[in-house]
Amino acid sequence: MLAIEVKNLAKHFKELKAVDGVSFEVKEGEIFGLLGPNGAGKTTIIKMLTTLLRPTEGEARVWGFDILKQKNEVRNSIGIVFQEPALDTRLTGEENLDFHARIYGLNRETRQKRIEEVLKLVELQDKADVVVKNYSGGMQRRLEIARGLMHYPKVLFLDEPTLGLDAQTRRRIWEYILKLNQREKTTIILTTHYMEEADYLCQRVAIIDFGKIIVQDRPDSLKNTLGGDVISIEAVPEKRSFEVFSKLSWVKKIKLHNGIIDLNVDRGENKIALLIKIDQEEEGFEIKSVNLRKPTLEDVFLHFTGRTIREKEANQNERNKMMMRRRFRR
Amino acid sequence: MESKNIQTIYVMWLREMKRFSRDKSRVIGTLAMPFFFLFSMGFGFRGGFNLPGVPQGTDYIDFLVPGILGMTMLFTSMFAGLSVLWDKEFGFLKEIMVAPVKRSAIVFGRIIGGITTSIIQGFIILIISLFIGFKIASPLSLILAFVFMFLIGTAFIGFGIAIASKMEDVHGFSLIIQFIIFPTFLLSGALFPISNFPSWIRPLSYINPLTYGVDGLRASLIGFSQFPLVFDFFIILIFDFVMIGLATWLFSKTEV
């Protein structure tokens, strides 16, 4: 069965096409990732699927229910962890969970049992009676994940579940996510702009940029499309070295970004040897550094969009600043 | 299904109670204003002269207390309704909006919770006023006053929710206080009889629901009023239904 079915979903805010006709499917029991830079439209997709926003166009079903015509059934089947905190900070951890459980109609017995269970899963039992205001960021996040699970949702939405958390806490949250996917068979759809997160957790990912899905597949097949290994070279002058490398017969793909030349090759360790044999003086360039690695999702993103996700984000920030400036001038 | 919606009303109420009991500064903050009005006006206009429109021999403090009670209900209820804005600001509104329950149940829960805290605060003011010379006629007066406090509360919590649902963030909050809450208070006849207003202002008082609330409280507590008590009762009741409907409608259209 399909847990989520999305067809041509779009959301326009005035002229801005935040989501520009996306289609994808998520199978039951799967962990599916929406991967893309900030502002790509991931959160807007989540908000539409969770009935918080009305799509401009298109349709979607969550657990078989139409997100426009069967809002209540959709809401009943899902759990959500929002990107920004959504806890009542004046209530204790347990009170937050109890509030949630009652709204979702769990009876007293189930409530008590389940609160204990989920608190144990995220290791917050001893903080149950502490007012959430006094929780650390990581603890709040864990409490929210616990809350998302309270009512045995069929589909769990996680919007940037580890945003702003330290590496250790992030690891722990990854473990919870895997654990509940295996133990409770919860279908999970998560958004992230951390490549390693998507790689580690997701069985399939969709890469999103400017409101459109650029490509979707299993992380390893995506990486395989790039073929073999990636050799990253820093060389001067850039233009000349780029010319030289692009003439090499064993280079399958070549890309220049931010002063670094990426070559996609098979059996990279052999190719480095070949690289060294090139007479740099005669060709008129100089290699500063060489790095060989297996392709990551970052490389996949680079391959399909022409930039790394971090460069994308830097750019996005600049654009936002420009827009702010323009707004203030008015 | 049914029981889930009842649970929702209960849990929204419970949440309001918990927040209320843990937030002393909020109680003090909202009670301070009516308290100062009660003290300064109550003592300032004590005895001495007779306000036109108030029957001979009525102490100003007796005239004032129902007005201040109405003011307390207005302020606390509006703040309770507008707390939707704070939920928006702190993100909790999203948790509420994705819940698989009727929007009307959420609105009802908020109203019931807000009314409980408002009435508690109203009674605090009423008790304080006893110490500065206010006299309550009979237990029946208290029951009638309770009914009117309930009606005034419902009206303005509903109004607050309706406004908060249309607002994006808390930045317009002080505008609401200055352009809605204060004029409503001043035009309601809480401090002086509306018959003292020039005739061109009076229509504004007549369309102000708090006018009938304060008048009803006055009728209940001191037995003096501009309109018959039953008339006051039905006018606010109608206003309550309109506001509940409006609040539910606008709240269910909220996007977060």
Write the topology of this structure.
The complex is a heterodimer of chains A (330) and B (256).
Chain A lengths: L1 E12 L2 E12 L3 E5 L6 H8 L7 E6 L2 E2 L4 H7 E4 L11 H11 L4 H14 L15 H13 L5 E5 L7 H17 L3 E6 L2 H7 L2 E6 L2 E6 L1 H7 L3 E8 L1 H10 L5 E5 L2 E6 L2 H10 L2 H4 L2 E8 L3 H9 L3 H21 L1
Parallel strand pairs in A: 3-8, 3-9, 6-7, 7-8
Antiparallel strand pairs in A: 1-2, 1-4, 4-5, 9-10, 11-13, 11-14, 12-13
Helix pairs in contact in A: 3-4, 4-5
Chain B lengths: L1 H21 L1 H21 L15 H31 L1 H6 L5 H29 L7 H28 L6 H14 L15 H5 L2 H14 L6 H24 L4
Helix pairs in contact in B: 1-5, 2-3, 2-5, 3-5, 3-6, 3-9, 5-6, 5-10, 6-9, 6-10, 9-10
Report on this structure.
The complex is a heterodimer of chains A (330) and B (256). Chain A has two domains: 219 residues, Rossmann fold, CATH 3.40.50.300; 68 residues, Alpha-Beta Plaits, CATH 3.30.70. With 330 residues, chain A is an alpha/beta fold. The longest helix of chain A has 21 residues. Chain A has a six-stranded mixed β-sheet with strand order 6-7-8-3-9-10, with helices on both faces. In chain A, strands 2-1-4-5 form a four-stranded antiparallel β-sheet, with helices on one face. Chain A has a four-stranded antiparallel β-sheet with strand order 12-13-11-14. The relative contact order of chain A is 0.13. Chain A is elongated. Chain A has 13 helices and 14 strands. Chain B has one domain. Chain B is built from ten helices and no strands. In chain B, helix 3 packs across helix 9 and helix 5 packs across helix 6. Classes of the chains: A alpha/beta (330), B mainly alpha (256). The interface between A and B is medium-sized, with 29 and 26 residues.
